[in-house]
Amino acid sequence: MTSYRALRRLTWPLGAALLVIVTAFATHLGATPVHHPIWTEAPVRVEPTTVSSPNWVALASQLKPAVVNVSTKGGRQSRGMRSLGSGFVINTDGDVVTNNHVVDGATEVRVKLSDGRQLPARVVGRDQRTDLALLKVDASNLTAIALGDSSTLAVGEPVMAIGNPFGLEQTVTIGIVSATGRVIGEGPYDDFIQTDASINPGNSGGPLINARGQVVGINTAMLSQTGGSVGIGFAIPVNLAKPVITQLASNGQVVRGFLGVGIQPVTEELAKGFNLPGPEGALMTSVRDGSPAAAAGVKTGDVIVEYDGRKVARATELPRAVADTPVGRTVKLKILRDGAPVTLTATVARLEASQQASARDDERAVEPARLGIAARTLTPQVAEQAGLAARRGVLVIGVSDGSRAEAAGFQPGDVIAEVDHRAVAGVAEMQAAVKQHRSGVPIVFRVTRDGEAIWLAVAA
Known about the structure:
The chain is an alpha+beta fold. It has three domains: 4-251, Thrombin, subunit H (Beta Barrel), CATH 2.40.10; 257-352, PDZ domain (Pdz3 Domain), CATH 2.30.42.10; 373-458, Roll (Pdz3 Domain), CATH 2.30.42.10. It is built from ten helices and 29 strands. The longest helix is centred in the middle third of the chain and has 14 residues, at 238-251. It starts with 6 loop residues before the first strand and ends with a strand.
């Protein structure tokens, strides 16, 4: 299994290679409706060209002038050195889109145009959660590139990347869409386009372009053990970026909807353990006190299968749907609770900055029957020693190689709070619950990991 420690953002600091370890944290953008887009919408017309046989020479010639070099000084990542990324012009007024991590913490931002002009750029707004930033330069006679529709992308469709890999300006690479809807642990709104078009450090913020000459993605990360391209790159879908760009242009920030739940995907095993018809929906791992979800009556263990009239087939669809909801709107939640349908009504609140960052008798280790877990009762003293926020439950201190617990995803440091939807205060209670479990059905555990609650299912 490939570690996400090999996931690298594509900024290129002059004089040194930059490795950014991507971390996972859970929740997408709650954007206002797009009424007056600031980007160019008219497609580039190059003849002859088709989706299956693009005229890449003509497209590259027309679009390279719209791609810029972005350099920064004093950024948090470059520690005073100048770093290098890419960006692209979206209108003749000088608006430039790039990645947030290219300009994050910068005290000075400069944009180099294809004609050699180097201009100071103002950061209009940044959004860390989608890794997008909007810049403004004072320039005229700019070439702009049109934004397309990423929802129409098909796996196997040809695409082109333009950027400044390793500081080499105006580099063009060509490949295909390898996959869509990729979740790579970058954040709650992961929905990346995967491409084998070669992208490298310095490509961050550059455009991924379809055969019609339209931007369909913003290049942002690659999977690599070496620091160079191995044919696995990731781009932010342009449809995700459009409402973010609009809000950044209008307000300099992004307002998102907030429901107040922790979620995880429903696996085949969890579906059986929760008496569900199949592995669909978003499983509630936690419900924040005082949140819209709590006020609506949502409970842990509920599975949201429809939100505001939209089917929730995958758990990752729910955060994006909630974030896109206007603050104050009342929505219907269709839920499966203990296998039975329930309909609730919630009023979406605003996601505040403080909500965006989530909150971690001394028995000897005991091996609960048949699981492959070494555990101990979690007492306040043990919790303090381990630096855990939880003060009750069962602390996992070891997982046997090849065991069913390892296959289910258990890790040392996990705190087991429930077994088969029943709270357990210690190892003895957990052992009893495991022994009482009926055969043929997965054992469902509610676990706290790094301050977040998740569900795990162990095959019986």
